[in-house]
Description:
Layout: H1 6-16, E1 30-36, E2 39-40, E3 44-46, E4 52-53, H2 55-67, E5 69-75, H3 81-86, E6 92-93, H4 101-104, E7 108-109, E8 118-123, E9 138-142, H5 146-154, E10 159-163, H6 166-175, E11 180-184, H7 185-192, E12 200-207, E13 219-220, H8 227-239, H9 242-250
Parallel strand pairs: 1-5, 1-6, 9-10, 9-11
Antiparallel strand pairs: 2-3, 3-4, 6-13, 7-13, 8-11, 8-12
Helix pairs in contact: 2-8, 2-9
Amino acid sequence: MMMFTRSAIAAAILALAGLSPANVAPAMAQKMSVATEASYPPFSRTEPNGTYTGFEIDLGNEVCKRAGFECSWVKQDFDGAIAALNANKFDMIFSAMSIRPERRRVADFSIPYYRDPSMVFARKGTVRALPGDLNGKTLGVYAGSVQDQFARANFSGANVRGYQNIDQITADLRAGRLDAMFVASLPGTEFVGKPEGAEFEAVRPAFTDKALGEGTGAMMRQGDPRLARINEGIRAVYADGTYERLQAKWFPAGTDIGAKGLW
Length: 263
């Protein structure tokens, strides 16, 4: 009598239904928890109903789907994210984490999925020449960010003050407790484009120095074999046009922060 394995029987059933194992992979997807700051628009934000939205949320979901993972999001402050990852509080960080050599020493990165230059934003007309006009001024940055490190090394005349999130930075900027902020260009541009940011402007030039990172990537614990599948997912969203569609949804017309050239 001919014997059949369970896998052979399952494959036969799928074939009769006109399906392949790849077609039903999402129903059997491996679960993964993903950290987001959820307070960094337009990349991530927390909505009034408690859900998370933004470019990185949409992109992360698409990457997970193509990599065969069922991803759930966990809110995590940026400055404690790496420690929390290595303490097994979640599986991956997908939250504006710039790829830096010192970070590679404690965790693994995916290929870059975007790159956004950094810029100074200040009250209109108060800062014109960089870095000279920052001398004696108080500059807000994300604590522990690449902008924090870069500002302390290159804007030596400024008083650099670290914050946990951009809402804290912009609140102090509006209240006059800060003279300027140094952040990624798109979150800063979103702020100055709102009524509450109308008195402020971007100060050129934009900074693209390698000291500010080699693009932004997903971060996982060292040696996690799932990272290879995340890389496949990132490549897939670029290949099928999803990346361009999400850029058009979340950013001003003409914005291109694609990182394919860094692969």
